[in-house]
Structure to design on (99 residues):
């Protein structure tokens, strides 16, 4: 059995839990991935995580058991963009991160 490509987009506004903003499989997944690439949206490939998120509906918040892994991905995306929370300036100056 061949697995078809999937793409699940999450949105997080800093309030509450992240929620599913887009979801697609096969050709629609390809379009979602291309849109993300064209708009400099962080892509993360993890088939186990995608499988966990695939059952959620658009607009539905992620389940509590995924908070930690999604929080790590969000934090990493901020670091990649050169963004750090207040008080992290000393750490920011020690890291070699190109914005």
């Amino acid at each position: 059995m061949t697995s078809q490509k999937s793409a699940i987009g999450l949105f997080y506004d800093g309030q509450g839990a992240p929620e599913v903003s887009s979801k697609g499989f096969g050709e629609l997944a390809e379009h979602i991935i291309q849109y993300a690439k064209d708009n400099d949206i962080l892509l993360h490939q993890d088939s186990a995580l995608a499988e966990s998120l695939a059952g959620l509906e658009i607009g539905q918040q992620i389940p509590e058991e995924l908070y930690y892994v999604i929080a790590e991905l969000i934090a990493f995306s901020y670091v990649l963009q050169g963004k750090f929370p207040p008080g992290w300036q000393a750490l920011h100056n020690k890291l070699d991160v190109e914005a």
About this structure: The longest strand covers residues 19-25.
